[in-house]
Specification:
The chain is α+β, with helices and mostly antiparallel strands. It contains 24 helices and 22 strands. It has five domains: about 150 residues, Alpha-Beta Complex (Sulfite Reductase Hemoprotein, domain 2), CATH 3.90.480; about 150 residues, Sulfite Reductase Hemoprotein, domain 1, CATH 3.30.413; about 80 residues, Alpha-Beta Plaits (2-Layer Sandwich); about 160 residues, Sulfite Reductase Hemoprotein, domain 1; about 130 residues, Four Helix Bundle (Hemerythrin (Met), subunit A). Strands 1-4-7-6-15 form a five-stranded antiparallel beta sheet. Strands 5-16-17-14-13 form a five-stranded antiparallel beta sheet. A hairpin with a 5-residue loop joins strand 6 and strand 7.
């Protein structure tokens, strides 16, 4: 395989390399105390760099603790900063697509920078934990060289866009949604209209309305593929839903448009994003999602505003250019000759029953590689890439159930695949069954974790796997999901049996508990949300699962789903079952209840911290002005290296960046051309006397005009002067923005 430094030189896109260089500079500025922590936090979150809980070096695997250490070999306890403790790096995989080369590089990075574990998330991302922030720029470069980005993986941004992992090979889909998810990802990433959100924003695609693969019902935007006939011609489009979300209080997405034609898909997304920026809450973080905007305005008014906003958009060729090549995301099976079907073992047949799914294309299947707790080691990832390279090719997708799909598997190759998965410990069956339990990181690494969702999931998986052959088919088909707190990162609201972590005080001691959530529906794109019935001690959850599943099997009516069963017997009846397991033994009688799963220490919530799921709200203008300030700093470094011309260019770019940031407050659709920025800045801020220093009048504005007129300076003295002018221009820009905010506040009052 090509060494990573050689790969960088050949493959890292110039613009991505520049972005990563900028982030490395920002790390340096923060270390020197020249970049405010609040601003840097949002900057790093938008690069996928996330602070994590570091719980005394322990990582829970549901059975025992695995001792992990810092690269320095030291263990610490208590709140840590990213400067003295590792964090987490989130890697975006749009619609879950990952190539063989990308998986190999992810394995390399996990081994060299992390704890040698790749974690698949419920948004089809990959996360690497215990990563030092100083290592992140090099990691980003290595990933970028194989087409993987971490940009806007966290923070107040459009998060990874998810889609059905069977898109393009599904028997039930209207059409393949992968090219649309791909286009939406790169159209919205870094777009001006997605940079000033008050919270995160999530989008999902589904090829059909019936199954769970896309889970469009709980996203800010959910798109379900549809085909209609117009004048005898079939037209592709989407049922367009908005305002869904889970969190502490779930909201079902509401239908904005019955049918959005494919050419209008991205403009409509852009219009909704603009409305979120305009009407979204910015002070109360708990109510800063799109679902609250729609709740406040009503779906009819929001729809009216969205159509109105759509008409205001400037024509953008990028919004439809992708339609010229919808084959961009297509996959082809590897060129391999058919072979006789190998002998099938009992173990293979059991695995195939749950982990093989026929494709729409005859002779091929999708094989699901079940990943307990969403984890695979760097060794397993590397071997999996090797196996896929021989049997399926570049056809892998991560799933929202934290597994990995190998598509385009020849049916006669399936027994060999199973044998080779066995050899690397990845041949567990039970995909999408009761043993395939989804879990958020919980107290392992999340600062908001209250109870060990991973520890519970691991324990339930272990127990249920032992007895799965004894379970009735109705019980085996159930879905279990666990979250370490009320935020529903484990998606417990749409499980048949969901559990969310809480804490209770029993006789002066903390005891880990889980709320029992029933009534959720995984099918129909997460078609119904469950309700919490009551809390029980964490150690009683396995017994709760046993009793509920047994009762369902014994009392269900023919063809009755678990959701319907819960509705029929009533939540009061289930509450009685919960209450029977709610009591906690005295500490002296059974101390095990006072520890969490996988952690022998006495339970506490003292090491909880402030979560970083969204970051703080930092206005787009402030982010841009900080970027301008960083460009001035870079200009100084260039001048120190005797590169006067480039230093002059960078100082000019700093002034342009600041001018555009301010002018966009009045002209949201301002482009990026230098002439347009300068003239609009002159008209909107200078001629209107908004850009004024109280002592020097509009003098500082002329620094920009002069640099724009004169072009680059080649002498060190002239470049030095331009840098000085740029710094003053940025300083006055900050003052100008403060005055604009004050004026806005006075107008509002």
């Amino acid at each position: 395989m090509t060494a990573w430094k050689e790969r960088l030189a050949k493959s890292l896109p110039e613009n991505l390399g520049r972005e990563i260089d900028i982030f490395e500079t920002e790390i340096d500025l923060r270390r020197r105390g020249k970049l405010e922590e609040k601003l840097f936090a949002e900057t790093r979150l938008r690069r996928g760099v996330y602070g994590q809980r570091y719980d005394n070096g322990q990582r829970h695997d549901g059975e025992a603790q695995q001792q992990l250490s810092y690269p320095s070999g030291e263990l610490t306890k208590g709140p840590q900063t990213l400067w003295d403790a590792p964090g987490m790096q989130r890697v975006k995989l749009p619609y879950g697509k990952v190539t063989l080369e990308q998986l190999e590089v992810l394995a390399e990075c996990a081994e060299e920078y992390s704890d040698a574990i790749l974690h698949v998330t419920t948004r089809q991302d990959i996360q690497l934990h215990f990563v030092h922030i100083e290592d992140t720029p090099d990691m980003m470069r290595r990933l970028g060289a194989v087409g993987v980005t971490t940009r806007e993986a966290c923070g107040n941004s459009v998060r990874n866009i998810t889609a059905c992992p069977y898109a393009g090979v599904c028997n039930d889909e209207s059409f393949d949604v992968a090219p649309y998810a791909h286009a939406a990802t790169y159209f919205l990433m870094g777009h001006d209209d997605t940079q000033d959100f008050g919270r995160k924003f999530k989008i999902a695609f589904s090829g059909c309305a019936d199954h769970a693969c896309g889970l469009t019902s709980f996203h800010d935007i959910g798109c379900v593929a549809r085909i209609r006939e117009v004048d005898g011609r079939k037209q592709r489009g989407f049922a367009f839903y908005v305002g869904g979300g889970l969190g502490s209080v779930p909201h079902a997405a509401k239908l904005l448009e019955e049918f959005v034609p494919e050419e209008e898909l991205l403009p409509m997304m852009q219009a909704v994003c603009r409305l979120f920026t305009k009407y979204g809450e910015r002070e109360n973080r708990a109510r800063a999602r799109l679902k609250f905007v729609i709740k406040k305005l009503g779906i009819e008014e929001f729809a009216r505003l969205a159509r109105e906003e759509r008409l205001k958009l400037k024509a953008d060729p990028r919004a439809t250019a992708y339609l010229a090549d919808l084959t961009l995301t297509d996959e082809k099976p590897i060129a391999a000759a058919p072979r006789p079907l190998e002998a099938e073992s009992d173990a293979y047949r059991a695995w195939a029953k749950t982990n093989l799914r026929p494709q729409a294309q005859p002779g091929y299947s999708v094989a699901t590689v079940t990943l307990p707790l969403g984890d695979l080691t760097s060794y397993q990832a590397r071997k999996l890439a090797e196996i896929a390279g021989e049997l399926t090719g570049d056809t892998m997708r991560t799933t929202v159930e934290q597994n990995l799909c190998l598509r385009w598997l020849r049916n006669e190759y399936a027994p060999e695949l199973f044998q080779r998965l066995q050899a690397i410990g990845l041949a567990e069956g039970g995909a999408s069954t009761i043993t395939d339990i989804t879990s958020c990181p919980g107290t392992d690494t999340c600062k908001l974790g209250i109870s060990s969702s991973r520890g519970l999931a691991g324990e339930l998986r272990k127990r249920l796997t032992v007895i799965q052959e004894e379970l009735a088919p109705e019980a085996r088909a159930l879905h279990i999901k666990t979250s370490g707190c009320f935020n529903s990162c484990g998606q417990h609201h749409v499980a048949d049996l969901g559990f969310l972590g809480v804490s209770r005080n029993v006789s002066g001691r903390r005891v880990p508990h889980f709320q029992v959530v029933v009534g959720g529906q995984w099918e129909a794109n997460g078609g119904a949300f469950g309700l919490a019935i009551g809390a029980i001690p964490s150690k009683n959850v396995p017994e709760m699962v046993k009793r509920l599943t047994a009762r369902f099997v014994a009392e269900r009516r023919p063809e009755e789903s678990f959701t319907s069963f819960v509705q029929r017997i009533g939540k009061k009846e289930i509450r009685t079952m919960v209450e029977a397991l709610a009591e906690t033994p005295a500490y002296e009688a059974d101390r095990s209840f006072y520890s969490d799963w996988g952690d022998p220490r006495e339970y506490t919530i003292g090491d909880m911290g402030v979560g970083e799921c969204a970051g703080e709200v930092v206005p787009f203008v402030i982010m841009a002005l900080a970027a301008a300030e960083r460009e001035v700093f870079e200009a100084q470094l260039l001048l120190d290296n005797q590169n006067a011309t480039e230093a002059s260019q960078r100082a000019y770019r700093a002034m342009l960046t600041a001018a555009r940031a301010l002018t966009r407050e009045r002209l949201p659709d301002l482009g990026e051309a230098a002439d347009e920025i300068v003239e609009s800045f002159r008209t909107e801020l200078v001629d209107s006397k908004l850009f004024l220093d109280p002592f020097a009048g509009a003098k500082f504005a002329h620094y920009l005009f002069k640099a724009h007129r004169d072009g680059d300076e080649s002498s060190a003295e002239a470049a030095h002067q331009r840098i000085e002018e740029a710094q003053l221009f940025v300083d006055v820009s900050y003052q100008c923005y403060e005055r604009m905010v004050q004026a806005r506040a006075l107008t509002a009052s």
